[in-house]
Amino acid sequence: MTSSVSRHLPPGLTLPSLALRALLLVLPCAALALALPERPHVVVVVLVVLCSALWARVPDHLAGAVSLALVVAWWTVHDVLDWRILVVGVLLLAAHVVATLLSYGPDALAVDPRLARLWLARGLLALVPLPVTWLALRGLDADLAPPWLWMTAAVATGLLLAVTSRLMQAEGHDGLLSDVGRAARTSGPGAQ
Amino acid sequence: MNTWRPTPSLVRACLLALVGIAGGVVAGLDVLVVLAAPFVVLGVMGLLGRPRHVPEVRTLIDHHRLHEGQGTASRLDITDLAGVEHVTRVAAPAPHVATRPTYGAAGSLVADGLPILEFSPRRWGRRVIGAERVALTSTWAGWRCGPADMPEHGLSVLPQSTPYDSRAEVPQPDGLVGRHRSRRIGSGTEFEGIRPFATGDRLKRINWPVSLRTGELHVITTRAEQDAGVWLVVDGLRDIGVSGGIDGAASTLDLTVRAAAALAEHHVRTGDRVGLLVIASDGARVRLGAGARHLHRLQGTLARVRTESRSVPPDRLDLGAGAGSVVYVLSPMLFTPLVTATASLQRSGASVVVIDTLGERAGSTDRLALSTLAARMQQVERDDRLQQLAALGCPVVPWRGPGTLDTVLHQLARRAQVPKVRAR
Question: Under CATH, what is the fold of the domain B229-416?
């Protein structure tokens, strides 16, 4: 079974890579399918499926952004702010992370487990604002909120992100530099 | 490598984040804000991860001279890794070069060490490796430098020395020192016999047990040990068959070159002087010599043998080989002029051995196909030529590796002791 599948794959494409590409096709479609029993317009469905398929074929393709934007636009237009939005957010972010993971190299590049774990952690980190924003918007009555609240919220969010990223960047650089020094010592020609 | 450019992943995250924030704040679209929130994190982190310097990248290979089947590694040398998180390299496929990873694509996090590509040439000759593209990616996959094309490296691949050994001595050793037993008696260590003492014999050669038993002085006689001149004539006029490298089928040129390398190594290690004549469009000639450095020179010359369709066989083999030299002609013997030249060399007094390097060729299953008929006709003509050559006293043996030449050399050695008339 496995060998028969491998025969039909492009040269160098491994099964983990194929599985990730299949996820890339499925995830945006699943995000749209959460709308059932309400049926999205057939044009939207066809476009999402086609763009996702193209995205799965070429993870760097602009079709990925189009596919995500279509799904986001559909949910925005229908203004559904229930639990399904959280699932849609997770699915879309997962698709983006999978595409990023696949875009590090050509088809023949095997998926690096360490890199996959790193991006899994990053994906979880990126998910943190999702429930926070959802809870905030669910509990907030936009009509009763004072006008400065939106601006304050936007500035506060921006500041928080900047401070967080700055802190993470400094930590990352220190760690990275020490790792590079170690890597250079161990991987040099004379190291063996 | 001239600049850092945003990756498609960063562009996608920034687009979704910007549209979401703008739509949420301006139009009050709650859902858009919720769905865009994770992409804000990814976009901001990616943007902030832009490295400040453009690093210089070059590739280095561990070896520039290998035997076929051996391997070498290609390593990266990057000047400034600050801000670089991941390195990807993809090597272009090269004929007769195996790569690890199999498809030449390797990538790793910088923290785990720079990715290494391993190359193993599977066929002798001049190979080119290291033509590859390298891309560097910043943290959070925000920025990418490259892919940049790296220059290729030339690799001189020496033929594999197939295991070869021979216990036979060369027929007519003519040098001063060596490991072959001389035809003349001398001060060697090889026992020849015991005879009565004669004036001039050294006292240390007296065999006292025999002298006491017979009542007359007897001395031990020994043979001197000499080296020999060995010429290798390599036919590089045509290459019949498809070479699969050391792992697959061998073409005629593969067999020829590997057999020549094995014979050269054997005779140089034995202490003989070995010379080489390559018959090809850009033929080469290496004079008789001995030692490890000379062996490297021979192997390097063999690695440069190339066939061209415009090559023409020579009318005569001008080796300058003396009567004591042994000449191995390694050839599939497909050209009449080469057969004639070999016969002329045989008549001039050299001990010539033809090593047939055509090998086993699987023909087409269709016996009436045009190509099959042509091959059979050529085979018939070739067999006829080889029979004529054998009738002249020139042995023809197919190359079979170790022990291929033992019987033939024993016969030549016996023949060398028989008086003969030499044609000039």
Answer: Rossmann fold (3.40.50)
